Amino acid sequence: MLEFNEAEHRYFDGGVELPSVTTITRFCSVDSKTAAGINPFYRDRGTLVHALCADYDYTGELSTGTGVDGYLQAYADFVRDYRPQWKWIEHMVGSARQGFAGTIDRMGTIDGRGCILDIKTSSKVNKLALAAQLTGYADLTQAVDTALWGLQLCKNGTYRVIPVEFDYEVWTSCWILHQKGQMK
Fold it and tell me: What pLDDT is recorded for position 37?
């Protein structure tokens, strides 16, 4: 059974520690903040936005007065505009057999097509890292005919949908680099 230690951001399956998709794809980042660990302010803001967006998905009610109102309004506008049907919301996936794990922000259908979506609250989105991350999630779920989207939520209440293509070359390269680093 897949378990997650939130305080340490570590996944386990049957007692076996599994690297996260975002840990594996860290090699795509040229930003040392991302490679060495994100600033706690931005991490906490992102965590809050993710949780409140999930609350919105479950209840249809928008939390306000949380300090992240613009991000939440952007998400509500996205939901209104695209009308997604989510199968999974903040859903952990992974296995010791595959050797890695992660938490998919959203997976479901939009306009009748399968979609894996990752929510971003940063001012810039690294499309290479996003493509590698979403390809890793698609690999975990065996979702081969699925759209891969980033959803950038902005402080000012706007959003941007960022479609990316499967990138098995980059995903595999990250996986190999991660494994080589573990052999030391």
Answer: 59
What pLDDT digit, counting tens, does each position of 8-67 carry? 889 999 889 999 999 999 999 865 444 445 688 888 999 999 999 999 999 999 999 999
Residues 21 and 33: beta-carbon distance below 8 Å? no
CB burial class (10 A; 0-12, 13-18, 19+) of residue 96? middle
Cα three-residue angle 158-71-75, rounded to 5 degrees: 75
CA distances in angstroms from 97 to 2, 12, 20, 172, listed in the order given: 12, 12, 14, 16
pTM for this predicted structure: 0.92
Q: Tell me the per-residue pLDDT of 58-77, one tens digit each, with 9 for 90 and over.
A: 999 999 999 999 999 999 99
118: which 2 tokens?
């990752």
Tell me how far apart the alpha carbons of residues 52 and 148 are, in angstroms, rounded to a whole number.
22
Answer whether 159's CB lies under 8 Å from 151's CB.
yes
List residues bridging with 151 in a β-sheet. 119, 161
Run of H or E residues at 178 = helix 168-182
Task: State how beta strands 85-95 and 100-110 pair.
Answer: antiparallel
| DSSP state letter for 20 | B
How far apart are alpha carbons 23 and 142 in whole angstroms?
20
45's tokens = 């803001």
User: Tell me, what's the pLDDT at 35?
Assistant: 42
